[in-house]
Structure formats: structure tokens, C-alpha cells
Amino acid sequence: MSIENLKNSLPEYAKDQKLNIGTLTRSNELNEQQLWGTLLASAAATRNDTVISEIAEEAKEHLSDEAFEAAFGAATVMAMNNVAYRAKGWLGDDYAQTKFGLRMNIISKPGIEEKTDFELWQLAVSSINGCHHCVIAHEKVVREGGLTKEQVWEAVKVAAVVQAVAQTVQIEASR
Description:
175 residues
């Protein structure tokens, strides 16, 4: 199992992350698609080849082909949007009404029926990318879509741990 490969690669100083990822992959807060889509989108957001390939390998067992692709779509569209929305915020009121001017059709047509799941994945990616504008916007949408604050927080925890695992893998590759 690929999560197992990641856990086994973590050194003693990252024991907490080994335990955290093990616990989170058995989450009862999120359904299977929500959990594995969040894991996969978060892995893509880390930009760590090892983490992406290990999580993707196992995610294929839990996600439909459409959901698998949608998770990557969530990561890529938020890679763009997180940069642009943060910049608009930094630039101030003069840019508030500026037309965005970038294509993002995947948000309205993510390829899966459960649009709330796609929004949850975007929230997780935005957490990793540090865009408070997008985190707040996607949290509102998923809560309106019926997800609980516990489910939202579970997705944030998944994103945080996947990021920590990716950082550990990178540290170990650099030693």
C-alpha cells in the first residue's frame, strides 16, 4: 500500500506525521471520495513527486476515474486561483472589481456529480497554498452544501499532514 510506503519512509523525528496520516486515512468524518480526493488534491499541491505518486497509486483504488482527474483539477485550478486571489488582496481596493480574465471552467464542471466534494478539495489545496480568500470562500460553499464544520476541519487536517509528510520526504531526500 502506498500510504504505508510513505509511513515507512518517515524518520523518527516525523513519528507524529506517521501516526497522523495513518489515523486520517481511516477517517469517519469524510466519505471515501471526500477523503481520497482530499488526499490526492493535497498531494498534488505539495509538488512533491514521491508524495504525489505514492498517494495517487492508492487513491486509484478508492476513486472513480472521474474523481481521480477532478482531484488533480482542483489542485491545478487552485494553484492559479490562490496566486491571483492573494495578489488581488495585496493590491487593494483598486483591483477589487478588476475582471479576473482567466479560464476556470472546471469549477462549474468538475467532472463529478458531487460538486461539494470538489469544493472541499479546493479548500484543502487553498489551505496548503495559504490563500485565506479561497479557504473562506470554499468553506462557505461546502457548509451551504451540507458539510459540517467537523468535515471541513478533517479536510484541513488531511491537507496539513500531507504537507508535513511531503516536507519530511523532501528533507530526507536532501540529506
